[in-house]
Structures are given as structure tokens and as C-alpha cells.
Specification:
single chain, alpha+beta, Aminopeptidase, 7-stranded mixed sheet, globular
Length: about 190
């Protein structure tokens, strides 16, 4: 992370308690399920990575400086960074992006230009991760927003054990063979949470 968008330095963050979004414990509230089923939004995966990172950085204070922006785009080109996008017509209104390594996904940032857009993005991303063999969704920190969706904090030693196991495994985020639907995401989430 950078201290702000103008900070030329990049800093590694290693909190003593790590934010994690359990893939089997993601919470889809009734209102979120209604939003997902309303067909207001279109979901896409990895079609506008740059747009998602720009959306995440488009706020008064951000940790995404030019160096970080360029490095994530490079990781995307190499197939290691991915994004879940939410569209309304031809407008990108929400999304989340992160990096995959083994069976671990490191959620880096998300944004929302409409109510619940980032939550819808997370719901679809969690479903994709579960269907393609992932075991760990690292969020670095636990925010109030992530807590409402089932996010938890784990002690560093517990996190490091889970991380070691996850990065040594194999998952393929691109291996989803059937299109995701709101009903399917909700149903699979209900069966496993």
C-alpha cells in the first residue's frame, strides 16, 4: 500500500489480526438477494480490470498510487490479478479486484457507485472462488462493511497456517464452466453457509 496517491513509496502491510472472508460463510441478506434478482445489474468478470482499479482509486483518499496501479495491471496481464465487475447499461458502477495465488485470493479493493454494487460483486466473486477450488479469501483488514457480509479477523499464526496451505494448492479462477446467475449464486450460498 501507499500512504496516499502521491506517495511514491509502496509499503507492505502485515496486521497482527488479518481480515478474512470465509468462502463458506458469506452472508447474502434478503435485501442483497432482492437486488441481485432484480436484474438491474449485469455482472462481468475480467473485462475491464483497469476500470475497476480506477474506480477503487477514485476517492478523496486512496492507497493506490501510480506504481501500485501499474503493478496490478501487469499482474492482470500475466493472469494473476482479476476483477469482478458490476455494470448498469454501459456504465461500470461497482467492482472488486485482487490477486490469486494457488488456492488463495487476496482481495485488494472494491468500489460502488450504486447502492449494493460492491456487495453484488463480492457475492459473485465468492461464488466463483468456491466453484473453482479456492480456500482462502484474504481481505487484509476487517471493515464494518465486510463484517456484515461474514468477514472475520484471525490471529496472525492461524492466518499464516491457512495461507501456507492455500498457496501450495491449485485453483483456476478462470475454470468456471457455466455462467453465473443471481439465483444460482444465492442458492449455492444458501446450501453452503
Amino acid at each position: 500500500m501507499a500512504e496516499n496517491r502521491d506517495d511514491p513509496e509502496v509499503h507492505w502491510i502485515d496486521p497482527s489480526r488479518r481480515g478474512v472472508l470465509p468462502l463458506e460463510g458469506f452472508h447474502i441478506s434478503r435485501s442483497l438477494a432482492r437486488t441481485m434478482q432484480s436484474d438491474r445489474f449485469e455482472t462481468r468478470f475480467d473485462t475491464d480490470f483497469t476500470g475497476v482499479v480506477q474506480g477503487c482509486a477514485d476517492r478523496e483518499e486512496t492507497w493506490i498510487n501510480d506504481t501500485i496501479f501499474d503493478l496490478y495491471r501487469d499482474l492482470n496481464r500475466m493472469g494473476h490479478a482479476h476483477c469482478q465487475e458490476i455494470w448498469e447499461g454501459d456504465e461500470l458502477i461497482g467492482g472488486v479486484y485482487g490477486v490469486s495465488l494457488g488456492c488463495a485470493f487476496f482481495g485488494e479493493s472494491m468500489f460502488s457507485r450504486r447502492t449494493n454494487a460492491s456487495k453484488v460483486a463480492l457475492a459473485y466473486l465468492v461464488d466463483r472462488l468456491r466453484q473453482t477450488g479456492f480456500s482462502l479469501f484474504d481481505t487484509q483488514f476487517l471493515t464494518a462493511h465486510l463484517k456484515t457480509l461474514g468477514g472475520v479477523e484471525v490471529e496472525r499464526n492461524d492466518y499464516l497456517r491457512a495461507l501456507e496451505k492455500a498457496v501450495s494448492g491449485k485453483a483456476d479462477i478462470m475454470a468456471l464452466t457455466t455462467p453465473q446467475t443471481a439465483q444460482g449464486v444465492i442458492q449455492r450460498n444458501t446450501q453452503t453457509s
